[in-house]
Hints:
- The structure is a single chain.
- The strands form four sheets. Strands 1-2-3-4-6-5 form a six-stranded antiparallel β-sheet, covered by helices on one side.
- Strand 2 and strand 3 form a beta hairpin.
- The longest helix has 33 residues, at 369-401.
- It is of the alpha+beta class.
- It folds into three domains: 3-103, Phosphorylase Kinase, domain 1 (2-Layer Sandwich), CATH 3.30.200.20; 107-343, Transferase(Phosphotransferase) domain 1 (Transferase(Phosphotransferase), domain 1, Orthogonal Bundle), CATH 1.10.510.10; 351-403, no CATH class.
- The chain has ten helices and 13 strands.
Amino acid sequence: MTEQAQSERGIGPEYLVAGRYRLRSKLGGGGMGAVWLARDTLLHRDVAVKQVTTTAGLDPDEARRVRERTLREGRNAAKLTHRHSIAMYDVALEAGEPWLVMEYLPSRSLAQAMNIADTLPPLEVAQIGAQVADALVAAHAAGIVHRDIKPGNILVADRGRELGTVKISDFGIARAKGDAAESTNGVITGTPAYFSPEVARGQDPTEASDVFSLGSTLYTVVEGQPPFGIDSDSIALLHRVAKAEIYRPAKAGPLTETLLHLLEPDPARRPTMAEARDALARVAMGGDGDVAHLVGSPVYSADGTIPSWAHRSTPLPPPHRRSKIGSTQAGLPAVPQSTPLKNVPRPLGKLQWPPRPTPPAPGAPEPTVRDQVVAWAPIAMGVMVAILILAVLVAVVVLLAQP
């Protein structure tokens, strides 16, 4: 909804939605609508109220699709009751348009946490992943595919009794089995950096694509960028995703093999969400962990405390310093690829030839000639050793051949 349209309807702080929910302040917003902190005047509790993009000015068919999408989000989220998922309370009608009323969790998202810590330790990421995966197991059991798992949709409570509690949110583009499919004609919706390769190629999202998106999200948090990199050109990024070529994570430690399994190019080779949850729980708890011990618990650091990045007392950086790691987009064209995903090799740490130093961080100086020489040095030494061994073997053979 535009600011002008909001002003005309008086929507803002103190506005009463559906005669019950009094708006307090805007929590955030984007192309899919705005989220407000509100007070439920009947039950006397704080709630989060999602105001969808207005249908004013849209043609009747498009307005109907917007309303149906909002109601679908409400229905899908209402099917899911889990400690690690934001609860859906109500769908309120205001001036004929639906507003979603949800649990309010004072929190920061993993995307915001990355602006504080850049990367999070594998132990903490494994805990987060196991808890979110457990919620998604319940969603899949209810026939719901989330379709937009990313750091911005995973919340961590930053104060109060819930401090450190992890919850997945925003089922805005989720679909349940039996929902009528929208005619997209090769157009896809979501966040390109976290797409699975088959979705980037135009296939319908499935439970397996949710597994890949969770793997991409956890990879991003532990490595500092998504598995296919960051690119302001969404189409170029989409082409990289469709090729399904990623490299072995460098900072994931004990989480590495589990991440690679979640990021299998071929959806048939990926684990189920339940298998992913159990594997993440084993990493989080040292090999013999039971996810039951993690469900409902806050995230703990290695020293047994709630991580500093989760505390509200740790301030977020100013807006101009915050990195962008992807937003939900609609109308993206699918990318046809001739190579079947089953023929794409499992992501490995590929040997570069000729070897090159690690790409510099943004803003860092370009590699010097000395950097190139240093990068070549291990290979050159190996070649020299091989030559010396070969020379010794030749000398021995010559000596033995003499009468």
